[in-house]
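Structure request: ATP synthase membrane subunit DAPIT mitochondrial, Dissostichus eleginoides.
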Amino acid sequence: MPVSPVKTRIPLTSLGHLITEVKKQLFGIEAPASSELIGLRKYFNSYTLQGRRNYVLATYGVFALTAAAYWMHRQHKKENQAPSSTA
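Returned structure:
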């Protein structure tokens, strides 16, 4: 049976933490210190829980704005297609 080279100390249910462990053990990529994160990387990163949360919130926000724009465009289209009686 094949054995994984990654020695994980975390449950496999946490995909984000598993990816972080794989980066650390297989590729030697360490999470940067908080002082090294500048600009948008400070708020949107894959190293901290807050950074991951911000990605999720931004994604949900984009979906909500897209749905709202579509809904408003659809209602505007219905109003323009309604027959008007000018008799």
